[in-house]
Every structure is written in C-alpha cells, then in structure tokens.
Design a protein that fits this description.
binds pyridoxal-5'-phosphate, 429 residues, alpha/beta, Aspartate Aminotransferase, domain 2, 37% helix
Length: 429
C-alpha cells in the first residue's frame, strides 16, 4: 500500500518514518549533527556532483528533517517537500527560484500581517515586486498579470479574519499565464484544506502554528505539487536552463518526470545559498505534533464554532467573522474548500470599539495575550496594535485587522471554560 492510498491519520503518524535501522528506536531520533561521514572519496565526489542522493551537511538536509518533509508531502498529496527555519523562510525559499530582480508576483491582500511586510519591504530590496490583488475578486488577479509576473500567492484560510479563498478560479488564472499558484495553508493544515486538489502548484506552511500545534518550535515547509511544467516557457531559468552553480544541471530536465524538480531547486540552490535550515530538534518536536493534527483541528474547529456562536449572540459584540457561521459570506466556499471544519482563528468587533477591545484583552484569564496562533491553548490579540501595526490603515482594513478587531485562536481546552473566560471578561466591560 503506497502512502497516497493510506488514510490521513495513518500518514500523520507513519509517513516517512521507520524504526531506526541501527538502534531500533521507534520514535524518529533527533540527528543532532552538522555533517555526515562519506564512505570514500568516490562517494563524496558523487554526492557533490549530484550523481547520488545522500547526506552532506545539515544546512542542506538532515535525517530528522527528511522524515518531517516526507510526512507533510504525504499529508498534502505533494511529491516532495523542504522544511526550513520558519514560515517566513519558507516564503523566501519558495519564491527565490521563481523570481529575478525586476520580476513581479501577485498576492492576495488578505494575508498574515508579517507576510504583507515581508513582501512589501524586504522583498522589494531584491527588486521582487509584489502587486496586491483584492481577496476573492478574481478579475483583480487577472488584471495584474503581465510579462514580468512569475507567481500568485494566496492563503487558503486567510489570517486573521476567517476568510476562505476561492482557490480554483485563481489557479486557472495562474495556469493560463504559465505561472504557479502558491498557497499558504498554515491556517487550514491539510486536514481542513487540500489546495493541490484545486489546482495549486506549491504549498507553504508556517509549521510553528497548527502542524506543530503546541507553540514550542518555529519552522516552515514548502511542498512541491509536482504538477507544473517548468520548461513550458522561459520564465523560470533556475529550473529550465543549465545551472552555472550546479554542474550545468538542467533541473527540470533531470527531475521533472519525478515531479520533484522544484523541491530540488529550493533545496540545492535556494536553501544551500540563503541558509535558513531548520534545527533537527525543532523538526523532531514538530513531527511529534503532526501525529495529532487531525484530532486537534477537529477540536479546534468545533470549539471555535461554539465560541463564535456564543459571541454572535452577545449584546456587547458588534460582529463576528468566522467562516463556519451559518450567515457567513464564506459559508459556501467553506463547504467546498474546508469540508472538515473552518479552523481555530477568527475575528470579532465589540460595540465599544477599540477601548472595549483593550479591556477584553486585559480581562481574560485563561486566554494568553500573545502574537501567535495554532497553539493547543486559547490565544487572544488586538492585531491593529500588534501583528498588523506596521501596516497602513488601508492595509489593516483590507486584511481584516481594523482598529476594533479582536483576534482569537481557539484552543482545545473544554469549550465551557473557554466561553466562561470570555464571559467574565465581557461582563467586566
Ligand atoms: C505565522 C505565519 C506565517 C509566518 O510563519 P513564521 O513561522 O512565524 O515565520 C506565515 N503565514 C501565516 C498564515 C502565518 O500564520
């Protein structure tokens, strides 16, 4: 039985892993080593020449990391994956093979605040130029495509506002333009949404969030869908042309049939040269977190729906934006893209506006006030003064993080205690 025919929970526990061949250890060991001994000089030369696969140096690969990569690739239905130091590093490494100075990429304006910053300011210094499309306004993507465009980037469930992206028509626009669609699937995890089923070509994650699931390690990953022909036009020379820094390899010609040429280029060019490798210890902790991702996402989604319904009926609450609610604008998209639930994170506004929001954040006891999502613990934050504070007012509004917005990441505690904590804090306003 191949991994693609096994069930989600089986893959979440077994994909990529075997008992350790030397010691019999059942848990995947932490291979805490920087480098690996070559068998002989021929072996070393073949590894460096790309004629044999094998471990060279932990900036490029590590056995603990390799299990993590196989596991996430199996869960997403991709061909290969590359784990890196953080979600932001994943975005950098994912785009590096695709963009040269002067190129453009299109991104949805409904994104994690940190990604809006990274794209607007830091990538600008490479002369990688982001053009912002408007959420699910499909024409806004089409109208931004030109000769310089090299990718489209969206989030499946968009942070922070409980927004579901209409992936399929956006994937069609990318395909027509001969460029890949990259989907950040952090908020959904493959348990809630499978972007490759709807035409995505590349998936990125912040492993820090729901895949790790316990708020103890920062990490990121890029998954290759193996469904893009990198040689069909001349837009992607790192994949289609002989590479001067890698023995004149034509990566797509060599690895295209296996559907892993993009993942190979991310590893052997972008990660090798830019360097944000994940530590073996973080890979180990995240791997253990992934074993329970389905159970957690189910509980996160059930709890979040109950909390959203409670808030919606509360007299001090002005509005609630959660795609799982019956009257959400995203209800039908949620049914299509997220049939197993709509996740843990959503936003709401209080009738008392900014001041009431501050009181609520200060009044909760079990909720942690911090800048993260996807912990087993319930979390609360006021995005406009924190995660989204570097954005302009317009960007804050567009990304669903206006001044009155409170963001919750509902944990997997007993929902009665979660609601009880919000109730006492709301009563005190
Ligand atoms: C947190 C987050 C990121 C960035 O990931 P880090 O691991 O913090 O670098 C990217 N996208 C989304 C949707 C996130 O929530």
């Amino acid at each position: 039985m191949s991994e693609t025919t096994k069930g989600f929970n089986t893959n979440a526990i077994h994909a990529g892993a075997k008992p350790d061949p030397t010691t019999g250890a059942r848990a995947t060991p932490i291979y805490q080593t920087a480098s690996y001994v070559f068998e002989d000089t021929d072996h070393a030369a073949n590894l460096f020449a790309g004629k044999a696969f094998g471990n060279i140096y932990t900036r490029i690969m590590n056995p603990t990391q390799a299990v993590l990569e196989e596991r996430v690739a199996a869960l997403e239905g991709g061909t290969a994956a590359l784990a890196v130091a953080s979600g932001h590093a994943a975005q950098l490494i994912a785009l590096h093979p695709l963009l040269s100075a002067g190129n453009e990429f299109i991104a949805s304006d409904k994104l994690y605040g940190g990604s809006i910053n990274q794209f607007t300011h830091s990538f600008k210094k490479f002369d990688w130029n982001v053009k912002w499309a408007s959420g699910n306004n499909i024409d806004s993507y089409k109208s931004l495509i030109n000769e310089k465009t090299r990718a489209i980037f969206v989030e499946s469930i968009a942070n922070p506002g409980g927004i579901i992206t209409d992936i399929e028509p956006i994937a069609r626009i990318a395909e027509d333009a001969g460029i890949p669609l990259i989907v950040d699937n952090t908020m959904a995890t493959p348990y809630l949404c499978k972007p490759f089923d709807f035409g995505a070509n590349i998936i990125v994650h912040s492993l820090t969030k729901f895949l790790g699931g316990q708020g103890n390690s920062v990490g990121g990953i890029i998954v290759d869908g193996g469904n893009f022909d990198w040689s069909k036009n001349d837009k992607f020379p790192d994949l289609s042309e002989p590479n001067p820094s890698y023995h004149g390899y034509k990566f797509h010609e060599t690895f295209g049939e296996m559907g892993i040429s993009y993942a190979i280029v991310c590893r052997f060019l972008a990660l090798r040269d830019l360097g944000p490798a994940i530590s073996p210890f973080n890979a180990f902790l995240i791997l253990n977190g992934i074993e329970t991702v389905a159970l957690r996402m189910k509980q996160h989604s059930e709890n979040a729906l109950k909390v959203a319904e409670y808030l919606q009926n509360h007299e001090k609450v002005d509005w609630v934006s959660y795609a799982g609610l019956n009257d959400s604008d995203y209800k039908s998209l949620a049914k299509k893209y997220c049939p197993n639930g709509t996740g843990a994170v959503f936003t709401f506004g209080l009738k008392g506006g900014y001041d009431a929001g501050v009181k609520l954040v200060n009044g909760v006891e079990m909720f942690s006030h911090l800048a993260n999502i996807g912990d087993a613990k319930s979390l609360i934050i006021h995005p406009a003064s924190t995660t989204h504070s570097q954005l302009t007012d317009e960007q804050q509004e567009a990304s669903g993080a206006g001044k009155d917005v409170v963001r919750l990441s509902i944990g997997i505690e007993d929902v009665s205690d979660i609601i009880g904590d919000l109730k006492q804090a709301l009563d005190a306003i």
